[in-house]
Amino acid sequence: MSDVRNPLNPQEERLGEAFFGGSAADQREQLELKAEEQAARELIAEATGISDPVLLAELAGLGIRVETLSALTLIPLIDVAWADGRMDERERAAVLAGAASVGIEPGSTSYRLLEIWIEEEQAPDLTNLWHDFTRALCSQLSAGEVERLRENLLGRARAVAAAAGDSLEQSPHVSNVEEACLADLAEAFRPA
Prior knowledge:
Layout: H1 10-20, H2 24-48, H3 53-61, H4 69-72, H5 75-82, H6 89-101, H7 109-119, H8 124-138, H9 143-163, H10 176-186
């Protein structure tokens, strides 16, 4: 939304500024953003069965939408790839292969989000959010479904960890820092 004043109705602008206290355009933009986030919370709740309003607000507040939920589920791959502070080409390829294995197609919103996370290490808040999301999601699943989800996600994360090999280019090797990362990620699947 632009900051251009409405030339056809300056009284409307003045009334808006008086009512909202500040730029009416800025206030309208904030209201539209809140409405968009509310709609996102409702759609995420419907898609996942999650009902925790705080978690739903966090997801929507960070820009997670139904169309990017699949990218959120791949946070373990990203975390493991960045565990040592850098992501090499083999790890990048393994992350993108993991994305393809769950149907994330190049050019999609989720794929573009993954590309950002591949280039820039994400904030710890996103990993914490993934933990909360996964716990909430697991509370909606049977024990067998939780186990399959855990095996699937952690298996892909381990494949990313093993992709780089060790410094001598020998067989795939998972470093101690990557093992610690995998152990941390596994905590999200433990019953509360």
